[in-house]
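Technical annex, item 7. During the second reporting period the consortium partners agreed on a shared format for inverse folding records so that results from different sites could be compared directly. Each record opens with the tokenized structure and is followed by the designed sequence. A conforming record, contributed by the partner at site C, is shown below for reference.
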């Protein structure tokens, strides 16, 4: 039974909707202020706040960043502009701030008080966004000034959400398909169809749809955050809901609550049952030396298991069946590795369920030294005990013994200790 969070994006997603939902679900606003550090200090001309609002009959929390009147523009003069961001969203903040380069954003993140791990994640998110913008506008990453998230309020959104999810400490995060809206959106480079170019690229491989609502329902910030934190997409998972948070957008649509809903609870699925993706291809024209490199790259990319089987292929050629087992959210990364590191021109995959035994490791003492022992249980009953092979090889080499003798000593030591407990 693990903690699970469901992101219900039936009315899209944006950074401030995420923060509103997290606050509505229990994240203390003082905790958020402390984590943001100097990013949200009054002396910088801004303060954060939250209020309860109504969205089509649903009570929700609206996160707000308030201007205190001390903000200065990039020219050093007090800011008097109230123009909206270049990317509109029904739930976006309606303020204007100077945009920042990636280097400047990294410095701002470093001024926050979030954990080092959260800082690294926030930096990685902005780097990912800058790469998307650079690809769209055909310019070097270091010259990109992020129109949507280069403003202070959106930097606060992303840094705050990274901290908020660290505070939630969920084992699994699942997202619904995203309602992106419809129509046109005004961006820095003109009017574009919804979803805007950056949003569309960030949502690659994520399920999206439009309910017909006019307007941009998913901002680049929202797309960035959903695809970063969600390990999978689909319907509401099997769970026992403990808490629900509603994060409000700015506008109040008739008939449809403009909110992002976070459903938090415990999974009711046996954690021994896991969804995996199985990827396969046959290769008959590759230098055998490259198979070792391919396997190493796949494990580095998050594969759970990789194995090769000799097969006889068309034209009576001997070949190799490559099988990769991995978490479903690693499929795209591992597919890229297979195509980059091998000579295959096709790859098939399917999702299935696997059952895994509960596993733990203990250490036993033998007359030749300590050996780690892996213990596997099902339903609380021990079904397998296996001494760590590397430990047995090391002790056998040092003592001039057969490896199988050290294995037997370790197995006997474990059974003797278990019988005395």
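Designed sequence (site C submission):
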């Amino acid at each position: 039974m693990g903690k699970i969070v469901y992101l219900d994006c039936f009315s899209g997603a944006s950074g401030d909707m995420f923060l509103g939902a997290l606050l509505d679900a229990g994240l203390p606003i003082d905790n958020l202020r402390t984590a943001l550090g100097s990013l949200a200090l009054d002396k910088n001309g801004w303060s954060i706040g939250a209020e309860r609002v109504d969205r089509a009959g649903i009570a929700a929390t609206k996160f707000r960043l308030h201007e205190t009147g001390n903000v200065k523009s990039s020219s050093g003069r007090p800011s008097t502009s109230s123009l909206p961001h270049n990317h509109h969203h029904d739930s976006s903040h309606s303020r204007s701030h100077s945009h920042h380069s990636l280097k400047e954003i990294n410095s701002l993140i470093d001024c926050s008080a979030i954990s080092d791990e959260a800082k690294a994640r926030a930096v990685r998110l902005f780097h990912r966004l800058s790469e998307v913008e650079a690809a769209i506008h055909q310019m070097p990453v270091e010259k990109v000034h992020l129109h949507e998230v280069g403003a202070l309020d959106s930097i606060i959104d992303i840094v705050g959400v990274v901290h908020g999810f660290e505070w939630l400490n969920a084992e699994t995060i699942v997202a619904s398909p995203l309602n992106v809206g419809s129509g046109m959106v005004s961006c820095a480079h003109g009017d574009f169809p919804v979803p805007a170019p950056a949003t569309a690229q960030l949502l690659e491989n994520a399920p999206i749809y439009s309910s017909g609502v006019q307007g941009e329902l998913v901002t680049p910030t929202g797309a960035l955050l959903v695809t970063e934190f969600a390990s999978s997409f689909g319907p509401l998972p099997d769970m026992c809901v403990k808490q629900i948070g509603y994060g409000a957008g700015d506008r109040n649509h008739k008939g449809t609550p403009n909110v992002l809903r976070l459903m938090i609870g415990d999974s009711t699925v046996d954690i021994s049952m896991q969804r995996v993706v199985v990827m396969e291809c046959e290769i008959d024209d590759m230098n055998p030396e490259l198979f070792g490199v391919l396997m190493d790259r796949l494990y580095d990319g998050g594969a759970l298991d990789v194995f090769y089987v000799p097969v006889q292929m068309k034209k009576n050629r001997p070949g190799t069946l490559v099988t990769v087992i991995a978490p479903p959210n690693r499929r795209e990364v591992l597919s890229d590795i297979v195509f980059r590191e091998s000579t295959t021109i096709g790859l098939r995959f399917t999702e299935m369920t696997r059952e895994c035994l509960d596993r733990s490791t203990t250490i036993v003492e033998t007359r030749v030294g300590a050996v780690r022992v892996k213990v596997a249980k099902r339903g609380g009953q021990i079904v397998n005990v296996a001494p760590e092979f590397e430990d047995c090889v090391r002790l056998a080499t040092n003592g001039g013994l057969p490896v199988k003798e050290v294995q037997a000593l370790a197995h006997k030591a474990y059974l003797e200790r278990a019988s005395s407990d």
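Residues 71-97 have pLDDT under 50 and may be disordered. The first helix runs from residue 15 to 24. All partners now use this format for quarterly exchanges.
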